[in-house]
Amino acid sequence: MTRVLIRPGTTVDRDFTELADEMKELLAGAVDALEVAAGLEAKGMSDKTARRYGDPDVFALAARLYERTVRRPAFTGPAANPWRSQEPTWRRGGRHVLRGLLFGLPGMGYVAAAPLLGGPSTGLVLTLALVACWPLGQGLAALACSRPVPAAARRVLRHGVLAGTAAMVPVCAALGALLGTGPAVVALACAQSLYLLAATAALVTGGEVWLLLVLLPGLSVSFAGPPWQLVLVGWAVTGTGVLVLAYERTRGGTATGMSWPSLRMALPYALFGLLVGGLLTFTLIAAYTGYGTPPAATSAAMVALSLAMGPAEWVLYDFRARGHELLQETRSLREFALHVRVTLLELVVRFLAVLAVLLGLALQAAGTSPGLTQVAACSLLTGGALFVALMLQSCGRMAVPLTCCGTVLTAETAVLVLAAPPPSAVQLYGAAALFTVLLAYAVAVLGRATAHR
């Protein structure tokens, strides 16, 4: 070991090389000289100690160590991808497809209600009750998913289903009284709302398979075609099963930890559900209020859109997973922006292709009718717009999708009331504008790395 003479009578017990070798791991990965200085001070070195190495203070010694070391930070491997599940692809994809079926199949329940749907006011009550219940379901799901502990989420769902049902009963009663329908229709609207909220609780807690099983009695009688009284019995059994399932899946919850900040956090999701409900049922509500008749294929297209929500979830998870991987793999922000935008457009096209296939099958089953092409185009654009809005929502961009959806729905309503054109044409132009604006915005903002944190 060499001994370095600093001034007469002062020697260095350890030379500079030995100090650098002792701190080589810190020096190889240090971001700057301040990190090295912090490491020296953590070792107990002071300015007095630094002077033994020929430097006036710790910071000067840290700067000399930092300048003479080649940075070779240790590679720790990519961070775990929270959007990429470890389960097999067939199981992950099957779960998303099953969720799509669960979104679409309950529509068969309206077959059981066909004898009750004698006039326009009945359909309008059920549709408005459905639109009013959607934001409750969306807000409840968002609130439960924000809970860090599963037990707290179950408690939120339990209280949310009860509170939501209690809120929907007077709403349904008021709609029935305002539009002059009987108590049977009000009861059916309340049952519809209770089912939607209970099914939300089952889906959020991962009860997809069980929910499909309890749907089987109602679906079976709907497809078998017995007298409508037996169909009602089958769906009553299904409704009871859904309630039991929701109760079972939300047992054992702890304190909710509910607060005004958490409710404000869920509010944009509830508002999004309300706007989506209005956009999807625009032609139906217009028809019930005397503005023309929707094309016969509208109901079939709604079923296809509901079924497409399962694949939409799958593609959305893939987008978030690939965005996370690109953050690890790309070497510059420009490279990341290019790759993530190409990925976004690729996945939008993939979803539109799946939706087009589902629309083709649904419309073919519905048979040839006037306005078929217009219904298909409108449904494709609406589905694409809502899918892009969900992409933006998953990346924390809520304000613009809400503003765009609200603006389009307001404009459609104003045009219909003031000019009275065919509602299907108004909806088509609104869907085209919404899809164009949201896609352009998504390409711009989702290319930023900060959107994928």
UniProtKB/TrEMBL annotation:
It comes from the Bacteria. Keywords: Membrane, Transmembrane, Transmembrane helix. The chain crosses the membrane at residues 100-118, 156-178, 184-204, 231-248, 269-291, 297-317, 338-366, 372-392, 399-420, 426-447. This is Integral membrane protein.
